[in-house]
Structure formats: structure tokens, C-alpha cells
Amino acid sequence: MRKKIGKNDPCPCGSGKKYKKCCMNNPSTVSGHDNRSARFRFEPGSYGEIGNFTPSIACLKEIAPDQWSHHFVLVNPNDIYVEETEASSKAEDDLEAAFLYREKAGSDYAVAEHLKSKGYLSVKNFNIVKT
Question: Exposure string (b/e) for 106-126, b if CB count within 10 Å is 16 or more?
């Protein structure tokens, strides 16, 4: 049985906004174990600077066919790594675990719950650096 998401619950996409102010009118926005839905996809990575990297998960929103814009970024400030690859690997593992948790719980809301339980927070005014 799926847990119903209330309009005042946190949005299951992980944005930190209430469901009614975010994805309520677009129910297909958070789906799939493949980290991608019709309008959103999730990418693990790292956030920080040399010697001080934290795991991060970016949510990208499709703004046009094959054109994506960063919608929000989650970081886990409790996990700090010297190497960028270690932080990215941890984010990948955490995202995979969140989608597995979603399958067990039967709810998109479970993704947000799991990442929040791991210490992930939404970052305001984030800066994306292309490598």
C-alpha cells in the first residue's frame, strides 16, 4: 500500500518545498529507479573545494527536449572527504539506497525521507562548476 503524500508534506523530489508548492500538479516528477523521470533526473556528485568535499545530489529539470536546468542541489555537510571522487561515490551510494528504500516503502516520499535521514540538506544559491 502506498503512503499518500499530503499537500503540506515535504515534496518527495527533495527540494525542501511543500508538495503543493512544488510537484503536486506534476505527479510524474519523481519516479523510477533509473534516476530519471519524464521531467526530472538526479545526478550524484560532490560539493566543496580542495580537501573539503561533501556528497551532493543535483536534481535537474527538463526545460525543453534534451535541455536540462539545475532545479536544486542537496548536500550532506556531515560527510567530509579529502578526495572529490570519494564524496561523489558516497553520493551515488546514498542515491541508490534512497531509490531502493522507495521500492520497499512504495512511496516517492521515501526518497526524500531517506536522504534527509542521511543528513542531506537543500543548498540555496548553489554554484555548479563544469569540469
Answer: ebbbbbbbbbbebebebbeee
Q: Cell 506534476: give the residue.
A: 26
Please write the tens of the pLDDT for every residue from 66-110. 888 888 889 999 999 999 999 999 999 999 999 898 888 887 778
- The candidate with the shortest Cα–Cα distance to 27, out of 15, 17, 37, is 37
Tell me the C-alpha distance between 6 and 92, whole Å. 28
Distance CA 101, CA 123 (A): 23
Q: How far is CA 76 from CA 8, 64, 80, 88, 95, in A?
A: 24, 30, 8, 11, 12
Residue 85's closest CA among 124, 50, 129, 121?
50
Quick one: three-class SS letters along 80-99?
CECCHHHHHHHHHHHHHHHH
Dihedrals phi, psi of 58, to nearest 5 degrees: -95, 140
